[in-house]
Amino acid sequence: MNAEILCVGTELLLGDIINTNAAYIARSLAAIGINVYHQSVVGDNPERLKQSLDIALSRADLVVMTGGLGPTYDDLTKETVADKFGLPMELHQPSLERITAYFQRVNRVMTSNNEKQAWMPKGAKVFPNNYGTAPGLAVQQGEKIVLLLPGPPKEMEPMFSEEVVPYLKNFSNTVLLSHTVHIFGMGESAVEDKLKDYMLSHLNPTVAPYAKQGEVQLRVTASACDEEAANKLIQPVLADIRRILGNVVYGIDVGTLQNAFVQELKRKGKKAATAESCTAGLVSKRITEISGASQVFECGVVSYANRIKAEILGVSQQTLDTYTEISEQTAREMARGIRKLSGADIGLSVTGLAGPDGGTPEKPVGLVYICASCDGFEKVQELHLSRGRRNEREDIRYLAASHLLALGLEALRSMN
User: Fold this and answer.
1) CATH annotation of 257-414
2) CATH superfamily of the 2-171 domain
3) What is the CB neighbour count within 10 angstroms for residue 150?
């Protein structure tokens, strides 16, 4: 079975609302073995909606629509589908009762137009809405199925997982399972160059690269009769990728660098602390985004001023005078200093020039030094993060933080 996602709403076309529904539905369909080949967005216009539905049904077995199920005159998704399939509209009494009960529960007056949400194409499979008023529904005619779901994600997502997935599993005898390989320290083109022949020769599982800010992800996807069989197909491919790419693979299904770092700290029973200059707390912010970070994160010091580097972190004045604050020597002393100050097992430091002003031929914008210091491991890296673009200050800061998290992972994995 192949599917198309058709999201309805003029606010989506205008960019007033970000279309998160399509991404959620695509992931959910893939998990039960249904391929999505097209996605579309159409405004609240009956003629254009009808045209978009015609196109979707001409090339998909399943069309999943979101939006246009509200009580107002321009909510016409159900009526358009009913007209397409030649079905009369009829009142669905259980839905009307649920809508009435909802308004009583929230102590609001139910206006007469809310009854519109309880009218369905004849014979439709109705999905109750436990988080709002608009029910969802499925209309099947021959080989074609159209799903109609409410637009608000807080209503659509639980309805999809609780009601729609069990319904759709009746139409699919396979599952698609994916694992994500997370890569830092190698660009997308270099990853593809190393894996191109491998990716071309593997059709099940498939291997597909995706670029993120400063990172690359490989999605390894297998189709099989069940999840266990799909996972057995994937595991040897994951092992091959690790062997081919080496240490630039920082995890499988770990989500983010900061999550991988925090989970490794927990696994090793270690604690970290940060000393930041040019990133101004971004590293500690990213670490503490992760639930449970308080168990493994001691403190962070933002030391923009050299006086703070010297008085709080213990960087020697001689080092600052001789090598300046943007130097390998300063980064090393900052990492040692924050480790001593906090008592943490690993100290992380970053100092550099994020720009856009202040660069010199000797110390250009984008020059950053990072250091990780712990028992048995101490390493400083010199980074050149400017790409010559305008307004790249935040990019430089973000990439500096990512490099430091990756270096922190390397340090942790060297520890017993």
Assistant:
1) 3.90.950.20
2) MoaB/Mog-like domain (3.40.980.10)
3) 26
322-368 pLDDT, tens digit each = 999 999 999 999 999 999 999 999 999 999 999 999 899 999 999 99
Rounded distance, CA 262 to CA 282, Å? 15
- Distance of CA 233 to CAs 230, 237, 243, Å? 5, 7, 17
Q: Which residue has the tokens 């942790």?
A: 412
Neighbouring-strand partners of residue 224: 175
Mode of pairing for the β-strands spanning 367-374 and 346-352:
antiparallel
**Would you call 137 exposed, middle or buried from its count of C-beta atoms within 10 A (0-12, 13-18, 19+)?**
buried
Q: Is 354 helix (H, G, I), strand (E, B) or coil?
A: coil
Query: What is the arrangement of strands in the sheet containing 125-127, beginning at the earlier edge strand?
Result: 35-42, 2-8, 62-66, 144-149, 136-141, 125-127
Burial of 386-404, coded b for 16+ CB within 10 Å and e otherwise, reads beeeeebbebbbbbbbbbb
31 near 222, Cβ under 8 Å? no
pLDDT tens-place string over residues 205-233: 999 998 888 999 999 999 998 899 999 99
Rounded to whole angstroms, the Cα distance separating 346 from 372 reads 7
